[in-house]
Amino acid sequence: MFSRVLREYRIRYGFTQREVAEQLAALAWRKTNKMVAVDPQMVSKWERGTKLPSSRYRQLLCELIGVSHRQLVGAEPAPVPVIADTSVPNGDVPITVTVIIRTDDGVPQVRVSHLGVPVHGEGASS
After folding, report:
1. Nearby residues of 94 by Cβ (< 8 Å), 6 or more positions away
2. Which of 17, 22, 100, 107 has the lowest tally of Cβ within 10 angstroms?
3. How many domains does the chain have?
4. Per the domain annotation, does 94 fall within a domain?
5. For residues 21 and 28, what is the distance between their CA atoms, to the nearest angstrom?
6. Which residues lie below 8 Å from residue 27, measured CB to CB, with a gap of 6+?
């Protein structure tokens, strides 16, 4: 379960395995002033389920992608942007737009917007 969840988060945030390894190393350095030995091959093994990360790496992964340990291992669902009220005036179709920004310190920030997009716009045929 962990391997699937990790891969889904990595893809959702648009990270390559190399970027996950680099971001984990940078995050560990900022937090502890210690180097960690993580590389893309290690991230690949975690995602394939051939090796599990130590508790230290799991903690760093949780911080990097902004989820709890229970969410990372799949024991608890992670928050997913949803539209609570689907009734939109004027026949518009509700849409959720999620933008993930990778900041200079490597920590992703998620911005969610709810928009109403007209079903029939100018030039649309009925």
Report:
1. 83, 86, 88, 114, 115, 116, 117
2. 100
3. 1
4. no
5. 11
6. 60, 63, 64, 106, 107
Per-residue pLDDT 10s for the chain (126 aa) are 788 888 988 888 888 999 999 999 998 988 888 888 899 999 999 999 999 999 999 999 988 888 888 888 888 776 553 334 444 455 555 555 555 555 666 665 555 544 444 333 333 344
Q: Which two tokens stand for residue 121?
A: 């716009």
CATH code at 20? 1.10.260.40
**101 falls within a domain:** no
Cβ atoms of 46 and 2 within 8 Å: the answer is: yes
Asked if 53 contacts 86 with a C-beta cutoff of 8 angstroms, the reply is no
Exposure string over 7-31, b if 16+ CB within 10 A, otherwise e: bebbeebebebebbbbbbbbbbeee
Residue 25 in contact with residue 36, Cβ under 8 Å?
yes
